[in-house]
Amino acid sequence: xxxxxxxxxxxxxxxYSGNYKYLTILGMIFSGLSAIxxxxxxxxxxxVVNALLVVAPDFAKAQNLESYAVGAFxxxxxxxxxxxxxxxxxxxxxxxxxxxxxxxxxxxxxNLPLGYFSNHTSGGLxxxxxxxxxxxxxxxxxxxFDLVGAIVTPIVFLILLFSFDLLLGLICIIxxxxxxxxxxxxxSKDSQNIMAQYQSYLEKMNSEAVEYVRxxxxxxxxxxxxxxxxxxxxxxxxxxxxxxxxxLSTQLPMTAFTVSIxxxxxxxxxxxxxxxxxxxxxxxxxxxxxxxxxxPICAVMMNKIMTISQDWxxxxxxxxxxxxxLNEKPLAEPANPQKPKNHSIKFEGVFFDYEESNxxxxxxxxxxxxxxxxxSVALVGPSGGGKTTIASLIPRFWDVDEGSIKIxxxxxxxxxxxxxMENISFVFQNTRLFKDSIYNNVAIGKKGASREEILxxxxxxxxxxxxxxxxxxxxTVIGTEGTYLSGxxxxxxxxARAILKDAPIIILDEATALADPENEYMIQKAISEITxxxxxxxxxxxxxxxxxxxxxxxxxxxxxxxxxxHSTLVENEGLYSKMWDEFNRSIQxxxxxxxx
Length: 596
Ligand SMILES: Nc1ncnc2c1ncn2[C@@H]1O[C@H](COP(=O)(O)OP(=O)(O)OP(=O)(O)O)[C@@H](O)[C@H]1O
Fold this sequence. Notes:
Layout: H1 3-15, H2 21-55, H3 65-110, H4 116-119, H5 122-164, H6 166-183, H7 189-214, H8 216-221, H9 230-249, H10 251-261, H11 264-279, H12 282-326, E1 345-352, E2 364-371, E3 376-380, H13 387-393, E4 402-407, E5 410-411, H14 417-423, E6 424-427, H15 438-443, H16 451-460, H17 464-469, H18 487-501, E7 505-509, H19 517-530, E8 535-539, E9 551-556, E10 559-564, H20 566-572, H21 575-595
Parallel strand pairs: 3-8, 3-9, 6-7, 7-8
Antiparallel strand pairs: 1-2, 1-4, 4-5, 9-10
Adenosine-5'-triphosphate binds near residues 119 and 388.
């Protein structure tokens, strides 16, 4: 990355602080002044050494020692005070920066199409937001502050070196020049790319570790070992190899850097002895002692510059993560929003592909559906055919590539998100319940719902038996003190939420998928409650659940291949009729095996 881009990036980062960015600048000024202040006591030390050597061995005659001590103390104190004020400024700005960055990202996430969350896990997003803001906060609060000090110190050091003793100054400058030469490649574009690669290997390994931990029950059940998790093992190996290769590639410059940074003495002491052999005097001795005390500080500062450059790379990588989220296109709100005239749904010539899909065939191909208000239709067909994708396009999880979807004769893209969401309830196969009370989990369906309304919705969703068994009834918090609900039970709670919402359009995606026979019966009862006088789109593999709907669309390979009611489709002897036969055979097989 060029210096210009880096500069822009730094300014972009700083801009998240808003007006607090001036505090960062003030903090940096304080840091520079503090670094200078903290160097002044060394001059007083030199004065003390000088004053003592002049009168040696009669040290009692040394003059001005008290005033030197007071001066050293004053500047040391001033340096510490400036340091404190500077850190206060950079911290205030960094905290503001972290808060603003989190706010911007979270607000932006709220405006993204729901489909974005299908492809980005909540854990992954949380990690990006938390990791990135923590890294940039640390950089602005500490590293930037240290960087100014680390730059000012060697500059003042150089000035002092030459003002005390030109020859010793020149000797001390050799390792500094070498340090910079060895440090230079570590600031290069390649080095930044390597750091980004390192982070991505690390992230891959972390996410595979999470998958592995999630999959431990399956591993144990099938008596497998960690080695059966190929992806995890590969991620560890790739990370290990990359880290080892990277470490080995930096072996030479790093060693050279460390040697030269610690090489001040190696040069200074023999040079001092050599020079002393010819022109030893009190002043030279005082200078020499000063250099011996002072040079290690410079070494520490050079080391700091080195680590700060790495911290900037991490902060810059973290900013990339945040900007990747912020650059995601939000759901476009209509300029002139319209209200749907009724609750019918129409797909007209819809084509759709997922962004990351690389198949030659479209995911959805020329889909045309017509669902009258208050009709119930079912989408059935082989797995992967595109049923869920069709249903997801109605609430604009994604926008269509071609064609249109209309609700009540209005294109969904012309309906405000608020209206669209108010008109649609959806219940997915993987229901998400919050780790909260059943009451709160249902209440989320309708703002300001009364307790009676919530109880009524739970009752209509056939949840009475679930609640009766819970220690605190509807106030029981799910997932605590052993209160866990089965998949089918969770589905019924989710249906209660949808009943409470009472939206005129209902989308049910495999709502009975996780249910045992008893739960399935209860869920069917809840579904008949929720779907009364509603426009309903149902996706189901169990064909018995969709037999009585007004119309069935059979979806295969992204196309609607058949449509009609159950009896006409069975008579047609097409794909549906085959699926129906298979479904009946599977039921008979189940009954037989249960009898045996
Ligand atoms: N978020 C996504 N990103 C990329 N591709 C996806 C995504 N979701 C689904 N697909 C792909 O789109 C195609 C249709 O999937 P979809 O889930 O709509 O089918 P389905 O008929 O509902 O399947 P099932 O009955 O198994 O749920 C599949 O090839 C699937 O791999």
